[in-house]
Amino acid sequence: MREFRCLIFADHEVITAYIERLKRLRSPLPAGTIRGIEYNATAAKQVDSVLTVISDEGEIHRIQIRMVEMAASLVDYCLNRKIPIPSGSQKWVEVINTHELVLLMTLTEKAPRTLRPQRLSRRTSA
Question: How remote is the C-alpha of 12 from its chain's centroid?
Answer without folding.
Answer: 13
